[in-house]
Amino acid sequence: MTTMLVSALNETLFMVFFSTLFSAAGGFGLAVLLILTGPHGLRPKSRVYAALDLAVNLLRSFPFMILMIALIPFTRLVAGVAYGSAAAIVPLTVAAIPFMARLVEGSLLEVDQGVVEAARSFGASDSQIIFRVMVMEALPAIILNVAVLAITLLGYSAMAGAIGGGGLGALAYNEGYIRFRADIMFCAVAVLIVVVQCIQSGGNHLYKKLR
Amino acid sequence: MREMDLHLSLSARGYSDIVQPMITVRNLEKHYGGKSVLRDLSFSVQEGEIFGIVGRSGAGKSTLLRCFNGLTTYDGGSVQVRGREVGALSDAGLRELRRDMGMVFQDFSLMSRKNVFENVAFPLRIWDAGQSRGTIEARVMELLEIVDLADKRLERVQNLSGGQKQRIGIARALALNPKILLCDEATSALDPDTTLNILELLQDVNVRFKLTLIVVTHQREVVKRLCHRMLLLDKGAGLCLGRTEDLFLDPPEDLRRFADTEYTFIPGGLNIRVMFPRAISRQAVITDMARSLDLSFSIVGGKLERYRDHVLGFLIINVACEHVERVCSYMTDKNLPWEVLADDHDACQRPE
């Protein structure tokens, strides 16, 4: 059982780590675009903002299971195969980008507008304002956003078992629930609890340090 | 004539921009959603002067200030800063303009995650253009000496008091050696003592660096202490413009309403406001008057205030009807400006 747990944990961490990495990057970029073009942004462009806003909402409306199945052709295109842990990273990332974008957008909107105006008043450019003022000021909050993102992806990754993604969720369901192995189920869930705890306290620790 | 000669000789030497005003505003208009925010404003600000923009909240003061450095746009008229039309500048031109104009904010607007040093250094880093670390450090320390906070350089800004935060704000605004300093309610969030402190600092940088200051405020004390000239704004329109001392000594109706001096008048008799201009402010005029006329009167209220470097003020006295004529002629003889205050309880015939 220990070997099963260890390999499942490895698969889970693999999926969560890379999908968090990619969706954090993508979500951050999308959030910057939303902030830039938003109604109170540095370069308000209502049409661009409305389109991005709609796209984000659409993607977030999909139940993850459905999205994952709908994305199979795309997954095959990107990953070469449609099943396995590596392939699961594709739908996980696509699903998490709009989620992360909203989280980061919220954190950037929280930045004191006075500070932004002060930066403009001494001649900072738009990119300097976004990256050297807003992002720097919001950095602790963005770190917490990443922790929330990783934990959400941990939950999603359990569903990725459906396309053969493997991992702790799949182990708990396939081996534990279906085959009446309560011990495996409990152990898998216990390991998941520990992972969630680790991610959250890691995030909190960084937040306190950076604040 | 002399002024014209000066102008000619300077232009002949190519220094014509010296006699040009720092900022010239002509027929400035701004609307916001169909509402007029600034209406037909025209005035100019001279190099080296401290110019006050005064009015209640919502009068358009801060909006006007932001027209100068292009933080907000305007819909009509012209704003020229050192000869350049602000509304016509490109993005790059606007950034160049802002480099020459520091700005100080009511709520300080410092970056909360950076320490004192980094906050002051930030404008320098934005414009770094090959400045070495040593130059930035030397400049920041010089600025922190000016605002007297060198010992706090590694402190986080959250741990500082309001007055200290504003000093950091001023140091940051001075970092790029601006020609003009814009102050948006710079003392409104501070207690009276700290306010005086900040005003002294602003006065100091005005003199030391020959800096032109534009000060937006709703605080009368600030205008009086600091500003050479002032513009009173109400609902986006300019009500009066002139030297601070003249305007407060003989306030036009609009300014008097802003000045908001409320006194409970004594019923009966006549309430008279006696003004103390510069030449008279040191003499004991009121007691002299009582002694030489051999009569008594009540003092309703009054105020002696510092207008920049002079003590000036007014006193409201209540005079019994039968003495009004003597008192008024005494004051006229002594060249004391006076006026009868309109009041419902006014029982006497007004002297003609």
Q: Please state roughly what percent of the residues of chain A sit in beta strands, choosing from under 5%, 5-15%, 15-25%, 25-35%, 35-45% or over 45%.
A: under 5%
Most extensive interface, residues per chain?
A-B, 21 and 30 residues
SSE pattern of chain A: HHHHHHHHH
Radius of gyration of chain B: 24 Å
Average pLDDT reading of chain B: 84
| Oligomeric composition of the shown chains | heterodimer
Per DSSP E runs of 2 or more residues, the count of β-strands of chain B stands at 14
Query: CATH homologous superfamily of chain A?
Result: MetI-like
Kindly identify the CATH topology of chain A: MetI-like fold
Order of adjacent strands in the largest pleated sheet of chain B: 6-7-8-3-9-10
What is the overall number of helices of chain B? 13
Number of helices of chain A: 9
State Rg of chain A. Answer: 19 Å
Low-confidence stretches of chain A: none
Mean pLDDT of chain A: 93
How far do the termini of chain B sit from each other? Answer: 41 Å
Into how many domains do the coordinates of chain B divide? 2
Give the structural class of chain A: mainly alpha
CATH architecture of the largest domain in chain B: 3-Layer(aba) Sandwich
Largest sheet of chain A: none
- Which structural class fits the helix and strand makeup of chain B? alpha/beta
